[in-house]
Amino acid sequence: MLVLIGVLLVIVGFAIRLNPLVVVTVAGIVTALLGGLNPLQILDAFGSGFASSRSVTIFVAVLPVVGIIEYFGLQEQAKTLIGKLAKLTAGRVLLGYLAVRQLTAAVGLNSIGGHAQAVRPLVFPMAEGAALRRYGHVPEHIKERIKGHSAAADNVGVFFGEDVFVAVGSILLITTFVDTTYHLHLEPLQLALWAIPSAFAAFLIHGFRLLRLDRALDKEFANTTQAQEAATATEGAK
Question: Where are the bilayer-spanning segments (predicted)?
């Protein structure tokens, strides 16, 4: 039971908003010590884990690239481009990205897109540019809502799209778990085929939510305009 103290450390560390990397590292070391590992075994475990999951650190190479392209005005150019397209709204921009993200993930191209590579430097500025063209001014809380929907479009697209690709890690994990736990023979192709209806339903449901975003923004800005007009009329009457 003592080894579960590591889980408690993670919960407490996240609750008081400490650095996640430090929290997880300390929790791992404490758990290993309570489990009877010596310092050399702990170091070996960390090294083996890093070597087997080194693709996770790809963001180290991506972030400088994102910083450079943002420094040279990629976000502003994206806003300007979308602002010239009259029929595009924030919801429609995100709906298009959802479709692209899901289709590319379905053929195994998970690296096309992502929060650091696409959402932050391109997708969110394009959706924000569409909102600016439509409403003229976008307050901070609306920007945060669009930012959240931008991230959600990426998450939903890749989560439900990648399972259609037969060689993705999640499919292989499911088949291995079912085969070893329930002694069944589950083919990866079967899972991939059954993932297609789920992906289609996810696109329809989340696409509807993105279109509802446009209607919600229209309603909110209309109410704001009416309130401002009423306030102006009251001031004029005085």
Answer: 56-74, 164-185, 191-211
- pTM across the whole model: 0.66
207 C-beta neighbours (distance < 10 Å), count: 20
Tokens of 60: 């180290």
Judge residue 5's burial from the number of C-beta atoms within 10 Å of its C-beta, 0-12 exposed, 13-18 middle, 19 or more buried: middle
Q: Which own/partner pairs from 183-186 qualify as long-range (CB within 8 Å, at least 24 positions apart)? A: none
Q: How much of the chain exceeds pLDDT 90, in percent?
A: 24
- CA dist., res. 222 & res. 62, Å (int): 40
Could you give the count of Cα atoms lying within 13 Å of 132 in the half-sphere of its Cβ? Answer: 16
- Write the pLDDT tens digit of every residue in 187-215: 888 888 888 999 999 999 999 999 999 99
Check if the beta carbon of residue 186 is closer than 8 Å to that of residue 174.
yes
**How far is residue 156's CA from residue 200's CA, in Å, rounded to a whole number?**
11
Confidence at residue 82, expressed as pLDDT on a 0 to 100 scale: 65
Rounded to whole angstroms, how far apart are CA atoms 189 and 171?
A: 9
Kindly tell me if the per-residue pLDDT of 54 is higher than 60. no
- The alpha-carbon radius of gyration of the chain (Å, integer) is 24
Q: How far apart are CA 123 and CA 127, in angstroms?
A: 6
